[in-house]
Amino acid sequence: MVDVITEIEIQAPLAIVADYAADPDNAPEWYENIKFVEWKTEKPLKIGSQIAFVADFLGKRLEYVYEVTSFEPCKSLVMQTAQGPFPMMTTYTWISTPLGTTRMNLRNTGNPSGFSKLFAPFMSMMMRRANQKDLKRIKSILEKN
Fold it and tell me: Which of 33, 46, 104, 136 could serve as 55's disulfide partner, Cβ 3.0–4.6 Å?
């Protein structure tokens, strides 16, 4: 089982952080490993939307399709793989702090099977490191604006 939770505080209003992070078209800008995004369903983002991602992770090219299973603008977004190398769920949550900043949480959970199951602890560690980098990158982007 892979269950990785990372969090960062961003010096920007909740609506700006949530709108930017929830837009799949922005993913290649702030996710280091995501190289390409393609909408499989019509915009805008809603429950049932499907988005294809191409990423590089641990030296491998990964292609997967996420389906939005829950979306509450400015609160949370949950996407689950509809197709891909192993089942994964990604959850974003955004919380406004009393200081007017935004706390963003990024959680990845999944259940690798077969051969990849052996690498779950290593994958968790690498995923945590990548997610921390990605959150620092989104923080940098949004604090410049």
Answer: 33
pLDDT tens-digit readout, 123-141: 789 889 999 999 999 999 9
Sign of CA pseudo-dihedral 31, 34, 38, 42? negative
Residues 61-91 as b or e (16 or more Cβ within 10 Å = b):
ebebbbbbeebeebebbbbbbbebebebbbb
Least confident of 71-75, 89-93, 108-112, 117-121: 117-121
Q: Helices in 36-145 by DSSP H: which ranges?
A: 120-144
**DSSP code at position 40:** S
Spatial contact of 20 and 130, defined as CB atoms under 8 Å apart: no
**pTM, two decimal places:** 0.92
